[in-house]
């Protein structure tokens, strides 16, 4: 898929059917090509993206409003980093991580991955899927591997 000319704006769907409800969060694609994908995310209070790993993608999150925490899982244990508005969390490929809104208030952010791989198709597949086990199964088919929940998460 080649990058298209245009402006990505939350609330406007430039790709058609690219606004997704994923485990209570709203994602909307704002830029998509084979090389990278960006999406706007609205994360209600106390929602999260469970621990997972992208074996073939770098990922980043720039917080627009509110605050998010990223739990990085390393050989030394779990390291939690808080990201505030204008700050960008960087998750190198292969590094397990989970993203949490533990703030008590809604947060918004722009997420990105490079290269896109199968992520656009994954979001279409898990849109409105309420069963976390099914989300995990479908993610594995799209090269995103979920991990067991972390203690205390």
Mean pLDDT: 91
SSE order in H/E notation?
A: EEEEEEEEEEHHE
Q: Sheet with the most strands?
A: 6 strands, antiparallel
CATH level-four homologous superfamily name: Jelly Rolls
Spatial order of the strands in the main sheet? Answer: 1-2-3-10-5-8
CA radius of gyration is: 15 Å
The count of β-strands is: 11
- Share of β-strand residues: 35-45%
Task: Work out the helicity level.
Answer: 10-25%
Instruction: Specify the number of helices.
Output: 2
| Structural domains: how many | 1
Distance linking N and C termini = 37 Å
CATH architecture: Sandwich
The CATH topology label is: Jelly Rolls
Q: Quick one: overall form?
A: globular
- Name of the level-1 CATH class: Mainly Beta
How is this structure best described in words?
The protein is mainly beta and 153 residues long. The chain has a single domain (19-144), classed as Jelly Rolls (Sandwich). The chain is built from 2 helices and 11 strands. The strands form 2 sheets. It has a 6-stranded antiparallel β-sheet, covered by helices on one side. Strand 1 (19-22) and strand 2 (25-32) form a beta hairpin. The N and C termini lie far apart (37 Å).
Features:
single chain; 2 helices; 11 strands; mainly beta
Summary, kept brief:
By secondary structure, this protein is mainly beta.
């Amino acid at each position: 898929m080649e990058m298209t000319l245009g402006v990505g704006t939350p609330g406007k769907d430039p790709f058609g059917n690219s606004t997704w409800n994923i485990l209570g969060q709203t994602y909307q694609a704002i830029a998509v090509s084979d090389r990278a994908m960006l999406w706007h995310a609205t994360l209600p209070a106390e929602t999260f993206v469970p621990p997972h790993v992208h074996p073939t993608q770098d990922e980043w999150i720039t917080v627009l409003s509110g605050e998010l925490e990223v739990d990085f899982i390393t050989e030394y244990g779990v390291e939690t980093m808080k990201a505030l508005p204008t700050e960008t969390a960087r998750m190198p490929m292969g590094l397990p991580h989970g993203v949490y809104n533990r703030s008590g208030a809604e947060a918004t952010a722009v997420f990105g991955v490079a290269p896109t791989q199968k992520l656009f198709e994954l979001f279409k597949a898990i849109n409105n899927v309420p069963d976390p086990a099914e989300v995990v199964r479908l993610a594995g088919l799209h090269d995103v591997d979920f991990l067991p929940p972390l203690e205390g998460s």
